[in-house]
């Protein structure tokens, strides 16, 4: 799977370890979910001001958040393993500022927080949601399964 990383604003770049974590989580998620190796996903590392603007414009919520996902084929099945065409899954936008605060609040590393936000965003791209308790439980179970495959537990790292 092709993973495109960028930062907005440009000066707000994550540490190399964070980029490595995000890439490994997306790679494992794609493997676990059976997503085509021809698929593409973008990750934007943002600040609170940028993600707040997106949250306001696209969700009507005028507040910063930790992660937003913008699926290109919303409502359609993701490209499965071995598909011949390139599948553009969409973009995941993660606020580094919010991730840093949440990591401190939860008492774990920034890499652990970024791993969780990345898998959460990826699952949204492929149709998972948490609108009701059943969907929330299914999504949480899948998040934990993917993170566990990378050796990242609930309390981990």
Automatic annotation (TrEMBL):
Chief subcellular location: cytoplasm
UniProt-annotated binding residues for Zn(2+): 120, 124, 130
Localization: Cytoplasm
Chain segments annotated as coiled-coil in the UniProt record: none
InterPro entries: MetalPrtase_cat_dom_sf_prd, YbeY, YbeY_CS
EC number annotated for this UniProt entry: 3.1.-.-
Record keywords, A-Z: Cytoplasm, Endonuclease, Hydrolase, Metal-binding, Nuclease, Ribosome biogenesis, rRNA processing, Zinc
Cofactor note: Binds 1 zinc ion.
Requisite cofactors: Zn(2+)
Residue spans crossing the bilayer: none
Top-rank lineage group of the source organism: Bacteria
Pfam family membership, one: YbeY
Enzyme class, first EC level, given as a word: hydrolase
Family matches, as NCBIfam families: rRNA maturation RNase YbeY
Family label: Belongs to the endoribonuclease YbeY family.
Function according to Swiss-Prot or TrEMBL: Single strand-specific metallo-endoribonuclease involved in late-stage 70S ribosome quality control and in maturation of the 3' terminus of the 16S rRNA.
Name listed for the protein in its UniProt record: Endoribonuclease YbeY
Protein source organism: Anaeroselena agilis
């Amino acid at each position: 799977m092709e993973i495109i990383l960028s930062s907005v604003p440009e000066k707000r770049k994550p540490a190399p370890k964070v980029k490595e974590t995000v890439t490994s989580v997306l790679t494992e998620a794609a493997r676990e979910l059976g997503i085509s190796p021809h698929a593409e996903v973008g990750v934007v590392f943002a600040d609170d001001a940028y993600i707040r603007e997106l949250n306001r414009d696209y969700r009507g919520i005028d507040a910063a958040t930790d992660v937003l996902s913008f699926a290109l084929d919303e409502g359609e099945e993701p490209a499965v393993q071995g598909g011949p065409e390139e599948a553009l899954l969409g973009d995941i936008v993660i606020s580094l500022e919010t991730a840093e605060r949440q990591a401190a609040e939860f008492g774990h590393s920034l890499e652990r927080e970024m791993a969780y936000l990345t898998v959460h965003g990826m699952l949204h791209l492929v149709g998972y949601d948490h609108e009701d308790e059943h969907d929330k439980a299914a999504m949480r179970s899948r998040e934990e399964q993917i993170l566990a495959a990378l050796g990242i537990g609930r309390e981990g790292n």
